[in-house]
Amino acid sequence: MADQTIDVLVIGAGQSGLAVGYYLRRAGLTFVLLDDQAAPGGAWLQSWDSLQLFSPATASSLPGWLMPPPEEDGFPTRDTVITYLTQYEQRYALPVQRPVRILHVRRASAGFVVLTDQGTWQARAVVCATGSWRNPYLPDYPGRATFKGVQLHSAYYRNALPFAGKRVLVVGAATLGRKCWRKSRGWPIRFGLQKKNLGSCPMTWTVEFCSSKPPSATMPKVAQCQLRRQP
């Protein structure tokens, strides 16, 4: 690809990138969206199989076109979101090029020069809409280096199958942690959820359960305690 000059270059064509592209088109600017994925869908392509949005379709739409409601009751699923993002890209004929990997961005007299593995672009402005799933935060904690079991960030979780018959501690009981637990009900897995306390106590509670009840029904009965290794 020969050098090309445009008004705006958008890095990433997930939800944020597509929304930016919508408004750039309305403004009549020349632009391109460079995405390193092989297909539309953004970070949703990397998410676990049963992931759902945490809000209804009407509250999760991109500008210009409401996300169609799911066929079944509940929040949109991973596949529903990927389909919506794919159709949104097509609906507005957004100029997405993929897969393209950004190698370097540097300032120039007229804006920026963006070097990619498919050529070089010049743009008056660059928008970074890449997200953070490629760099998940895994905090350091005592025993991490010596623990011989599996330590997995939710960014790499796909389903509960590899954990059947094992004891699992989910660190973090916000939306993602609870969904991991809920989607694993029915599996022979012994789970614990740990919520970190930012005060003097290292954690507010730790609970292991096999019950089919949701965490909210179990946690109030658990006294404050310290995390300990079980035999």
Brief rundown of the structure:
With 231 residues, this protein is an alpha/beta fold.
Explain what this protein looks like in three dimensions:
The chain is α/β, with parallel strands linked by helices and 231 residues long. A hairpin with a 2-residue loop joins strand 5 (111-116) and strand 6. It has helices at 15-26, 78-91, 175-182, 215-218, and strands spanning 4-11, 31-34, 96-97, 102-108, 111-116, 119-128, 167-171, 190-196, 203-209. A six-stranded mixed β-sheet has the order 3-2-1-6-5-4, covered by helices on one side. It has a three-stranded mixed β-sheet with strand order 7-8-9, covered by helices on one side. It is built from four helices and nine strands.
Topology, please?
Layout: E1 4-11, H1 15-26, E2 31-34, H2 78-91, E3 96-97, E4 102-108, E5 111-116, E6 119-128, E7 167-171, H3 175-182, E8 190-196, E9 203-209, H4 215-218
Parallel strand pairs: 1-2, 1-6, 2-3, 7-8
Antiparallel strand pairs: 4-5, 5-6, 8-9
State the helix count.
Answer: 4
Shape estimate: globular
As a percent range, the share of helical residues equals: 10-25%
Tally of strands: 9
Structural class: alpha/beta
* Order of strands, widest sheet: 3-2-1-6-5-4
Order of helices and strands: EHEHEEEEEHEEH
Strand content: 15-25%
Number of domains: 2
CATH class of the largest domain: Alpha Beta
Mean pLDDT: 75
Fold-level CATH name of the largest domain = FAD/NAD(P)-binding domain
N-C termini distance:
61 Å
Low-confidence regions? 188-231
The biggest beta sheet reads: 6 strands, mixed
**CATH superfamily assignment of the largest domain?**
FAD/NAD(P)-binding domain
Can you tell me the CATH architecture of the largest domain? 3-Layer(bba) Sandwich
- Rounded to an integer in angstroms, the radius of gyration calculated over CA atoms is 22 Å
